[in-house]
Amino acid sequence: MPAMRVFALSYLALPILFALTASAPHAAPADEPNPVEKQNQGNSSGTLSSKQQLDNLFMALRRQRDPDQASLIADQINAQFADSGSATINLLMQWVDKAIQDKRNAAAMDYLDQVISLKPDYVEGWNRRATLNFAIGDYRKSMEDINQVLRIEPRHFGALAGMAAMLTERGNDALALKAWQRFLEVYPANRSAQEEADKLSEKIAGSRT
Q: For residues 127 and 12, is the Cβ–Cβ distance under 8 A?
């Protein structure tokens, strides 16, 4: 599997699906407030809503230039995406994971269809189904699901990475570069994305000479 594809799918895919190692969400160091706390110290308005927390995390991710610190923020964002706020949906997503582990893709797809039907604004349901469609080789459906992810959450860097991977495999380098550029607008400290964007830029420039 090409290095770019491995990198991109590490954001889009389930680790158990593609045998990729994905880090679990990290806690901030004990003496270091998390990005939301940093930006809201002294806030007397009470607990932030999930949307406010997510907005603050994305703001922190965009401003962060240290790759390691940015990765911690990205993990927190992914944890926010994963929690549907519904016990039923979260249980179905656990069944999805188990079905994929057991190589029962049809059952996993059925569970994901139920998730999306029950909670169509749950971004991770669409993202997970995009991953599964990619795994079984249905790139058209995978791209359709990615487009739904980005309709709900345009800052979803995992979906942008998956989009870039598929566009590259199809030879659409110019569009793949635009996807990586969109990714870097959200997550500028990601070195792998920077490298992929640079390689595509050089490739496109070379093809014009």
A: yes
